[in-house]
Design a protein that fits this description.
This protein has helices at about 1-5, 80-95, 120-125, 140-150, 190-195, and strands spanning about 15, 50-55, 60, 70-75, 105-110, 135-140, 155, 165, 170, 180-185. By secondary structure, it is of the alpha+beta class. It has one domain: Glutaredoxin. It is globular, with a radius of gyration of 15 Å. Residues about 1-15 and about 15-40 have low confidence and may be disordered.
């Protein structure tokens, strides 16, 4: 089953280890098997049984977010280039929702199973000014890889423990079904905001 989902990966990566853009991913996945962002799964991500830890060290499954739309992205806290900017993009989305922002779950999931333990995620949340609407998640490598496949997020770990990765903002409906995605940092998220508002 997991091999089937690997065909959903997208191919553009950015490096967070040195602040420079990386060339397109050249890993083991044939380009003919790479689907563009927007090729959405019709299943609910909330069916995943994997357990994550929040920045408050609380054990949760993704089904904990059921009942509200969710905006979700994958990052790691040692990233100095793309991840803070991607987080900023989502904060900008939140601000454009105005009074509706409390109706949305904002979720960041770390690639870094070794270093991004709950206390580290808590420090990142505080440094980025993330409020109670935001949940940051740490999972084991298998849980992170499974979720990344389902979200079309491709990543690779380097020898220094940092990650090159695609930068995708995903919108889930209240039942965890992926309904919209936008790739890139500093992107125009007008469509993202509209997609979220349609879910209220």
């Amino acid at each position: 089953m997991k091999m089937l989902f690997y065909s959903l990966f997208t191919a553009i990566l950015f490096s967070c280890s040195n602040g420079n853009k990386q060339p397109a991913f050249t890993g083991d996945i044939p380009e003919s098997n790479v689907a563009p962002v927007g090729t959405l799964s019709s299943g609910s991500l909330y069916q995943l049984a994997d357990t994550f830890k929040t920045q408050d060290d609380k054990a949760v499954t993704l089904s904990s977010f059921k009942g509200k739309p969710a905006v979700i992205a994958m990052i790691f806290t040692h990233c100095t280039y793309a991840c803070p900017r991607l987080t900023g993009d989502i904060k900008n989305i939140e601000s454009k929702l105005k009074d509706g922002k409390g109706k949305v779950n904002f979720v960041l999931v770390s690639f870094d199973a070794d270093r991004d333990l709950p206390d580290t995620l808590k420090r990142y949340a505080n440094s980025m000014g993330l409020d109670a609407n935001w949940t940051l998640l740490h999972g084991d490598e298998n849980a992170v890889r499974t979720l990344s496949v389902l979200l079309n997020v491709q990543f690779a770990k380097d020898a220094e423990g940092n990650f090159s990765h695609s930068n995708i903002v995903s919108v889930l409906d209240k039942n965890g079904v992926l309904v919209f995605q936008k790739e890139g940092i500093d992107a125009d998220h007008t469509q993202t905001v509209n997609a979220i508002k349609q879910l209220f």
